[in-house]
Amino acid sequence: MTGLEEFLSGTIRLSAPLILAALGEIVSQRSGVINISIEGMMLGGAFAGFAAGAATGSAGAGLLAAAAAGALFGCVFAFICVVRNADQIVAGMGINIAMIGLTGALFRAIFGMESLATAPRLEDYPIPVLSGLPVVGKVFFTQSVLVYACGALALGIWFFLRSPQGLGLRACGVRPEAADAAGVRVGLTRFAAVVFGGTMAGIAGAYLTLAQTSSFAENMTSGRGFIALAVVIFGRWHPIGAVLAALIFGGANEAQFWFQARGSQAMIAGIHVHIPYQALLALPYVVTLAVLTVFAGSYRRGPRALGKPYVRSR
To answer: H-type helices in 79-87, by residue range?
Structure first.
């Protein structure tokens, strides 16, 4: 691969977990529920996928376990916030904190403090003919199955949101009382949307352990769940927009690795400039803060009933 091909391929790989988590969050937020516990659900999915994969020797089993774990956490969050009408922000932060402690404790209890356990890896699958194309073949068509799934899911969710069922879900996030009057079961719709978002977050977490590292580390999500929230806002709650936004964040993340591999050197106006290692590590998060600052007003243009519990009038 040339340097450009490596950079673009790395950008796509690093964007994949953000895309998966953001697509699930788009469905959840379009129904009116903001789930900021994506970070914790990704972490839970990462651990479940690693543990199941290491135990069975099957990456597929690990992926299923991660999806099941994400769905379970989604059910817990939906019960707290949709059924019991608890504050969504507080509940989300509670799950995030709980998952950091729970996954760390389980990992040490099952695998030990200095575990060398590894999980099977989801190998790249070159698509026949297309993978042989110049540049784009190695960048787009020599990836893991989960990367290909990102594109298919983005298109699928886009079409779903334009379908009659999707319009009912969107109505729950804009005017839930009107949706209820039209026969849409708001509570059930929101519950299902949150569970779907949790499932996607679990799969996104499994990508980290089964497609990138084949190992697990405590708090290995490192804020990716919060970046996924920024991707949703930057993408204007649109599946295709979220994919493009995730690629920007993935590119920022790949750039830090690219600079580190080259000794943290950059050429500015013909002068070699040394970039501090800490600044490179902070680059993806700086981009996140910059995007949230610039597009903060966009959040007010999201689903009108976002974050507001719906209590059906009798």
So the answer is: none
Domain assignment of residue 175, given as a range? 3-119+136-301
pLDDT band at residue 272, thresholds of 50, 70 and 90?
low
Distance, in Å, from the CA atom of 267 to the CA atom of 231, rounded to the nearest integer, reads: 30
Instruction: Say if pTM beats, i.e. exceeds, 0.90.
Output: yes
* Sign of the dihedral through C-alpha 131, 136, 141, 144: positive
- What gap in Å lies between CA 85 and CA 226, rounded to an integer? 23
* CATH assignment of the domain containing 47: 1.10.3470
Residue 125 lies in a domain: no
Residue type, 206: A
Whether residue 280 is contained in a domain is answered as yes
User: Interior CA angle at 207 toward 110 and 96, to 5°?
Assistant: 65
Distances (CA, A) of 121 to 133, 156, 200, 223: 25, 26, 19, 23
The one-letter amino acid at 35: N
Question: Alpha-carbon distance 84 to 31, whole Å?
Answer: 17
Residue 273 makes CB contacts below 8 A (sequence gap 6+) with 265, 266, 267
* Domains in the chain, number: 1
pLDDT band at 106 (very low <50, low <70, confident <90, very high): very high
Alpha carbon distance 284, 312 (integer Å): 42
Give the separation between CA 171 and CA 131, rounded to whole angstroms: 42
Output the furthest CA–CA distance in the chain (Å, rounded): 72
Q: Is 307 inside any structural domain?
A: no
**Is residue 311 assigned to a domain?**
no
